[in-house]
Design brief:
The protein is α+β, with helices and mostly antiparallel strands. It has 12 helices and 21 strands. The strands form 4 sheets. Strands 1, 2, 5, 6, 8, 11, 12, 13, 14, 15, 16, 17, 18 and 19 form a 14-stranded mixed β-sheet that branches. The N terminus and C terminus are likely disordered.
Amino acid sequence: MTQSKFLSAVLFAAAVVIATPAANGAAVVKVLGAGSSAMWQTAAIGAFNQLAGSGAQHYTVKGTCTTNPNCAQIHDSRSASILPEGGNLWVVWNAAQTSVWAYISVDSVVGNRAFFAVPKTTLQVDPETEAGVPSSQTNLISSNLWGADAAVLPSAIYTALNNATITTAFTDIRPEDAKFASCRTLNELNTTTYAGLGYGTGTTCTTLIGTQIFSTVSSAVANPVNFNIKGTDPFTSEAIPAYTTVDVGAAPIVFIVNRSNPNGLGYGGATPVITNLTLPIAQTLWNGTECDTNAFLAAGPPTDVPVTVFQREPMSGTMNTTEFTTFRCGKTTGGCPITGNSENNSQEKGVNPTLGGANDPLNLPCTAGGGSRKRGVGTGDLVNSGVFPTTDSIGYTFWSFGNVSKLAGSANYGYLTLSGVDPIQAAYTNGELPACVSSTGVSGVCPATPGTSFPNLRNGSYTAWSVLRVVTNASGVNLTNTKLLVTAIQDNVNTTVPDFVPFVATGGDPGLKLYRSHYLQSGVSPNNGLSGQKEAGGDVGGCIETKGTAPGILSCHQ
């Protein structure tokens, strides 16, 4: 999510020419993924444990390299005006250095764009990764899970990855919803329905490159760029190949709070007073109506304290899942449809990108309460640069132990129930975010008994969640290799770090018994895909249904 001016194509080509190939032949990229942070760690462990074989090695890197602002980034060649997107990268390779798996963490919409762009986007890796990046920027996954990173990327692996084509999008919203989110971002501002958010012009998704969206708390930037999922590419007019999606699992959105002020959101200490969000409270906070402790409940801390509310950029899968399961829900009617009976609420309500100033980077005072709304671009930015250092702040993230690791195990931070339902455990206690520690005290490893994780997501009572999935070619080697990685992810999730409910039954886990009903989205007719047909249509905020039942509205939350 960080823009940069990277090495020229000539310099990258030169780097490829001088690299030394593997002794047993050139390395082949099996899967090169881009997208959501929600599956980033579990995908790495799956590739390493089940696909790479004995003697496998791995490498992770983030941040800035000496030569370039991003050590790893996505390059979209459809226009010279499209800025690159930096992210955290993991790489796994086999002992012979002939097979490679890799995944760069950006947001879900960028991951979808990376796959659907024609020509497809490519990964660019800084040459410093071959020579040695500072240790503070590597070993991003606990060594207890898979040992220490290799010191550098071997030349054969660097050669295979640099300028390689993205094969797979990792996303927490369907491609139809990602396209919708992109168009909504790029359309002119509609202050009645918020069907357009004003980072572009026109009302029919005609803007190709929109206004940049800046973080309030760091240098991170989101770059809205158009793409299509069917027909032809909006930049090049080239045909878009057929695609398919593979469901991986389901993860909840968790609302996180900074409780370090004992007279604010931390009031009550070990027995906190502020523990719950109702839908009306959530909507009041995130649309800027009232941002203070009194917004939560009448009998809050003795002194009303301003609250800082953090939201994500509108191209984020996390933002869209939360938007359409929580903030745009009808207060008097069931369900969370994209349009209609949603009272036209939005996190972007009152935000006008064309005005600049406090609108971008977002730092808008709320109408009442003395608090303000701010933005994080990327999960790590919102959690680590937003909520972590900001007293009396609240935000949200897709759950993973890695996503909340900086806040976990501390009474200064916590999470809230939604409509009285706990997102992580069966019953709420003190709301402290759990750290990933095994029963023997090993940090970074916390296996779960199959079928026990996220009980309230599994039973349908917790409503803010989405299915995590991958997007790849409808047939061929990319589909084959991506399915192998998905199986590895699902097989390992309970034995190492239970970040989500596996979609299918595996290793004694019954899998997810629910689905979110699909609807017409981005011109794609709905198909729930539960009878062998291809899954299709949007489902972000769709009704929660039990597999084996016909779609209805009875299980939509009120």
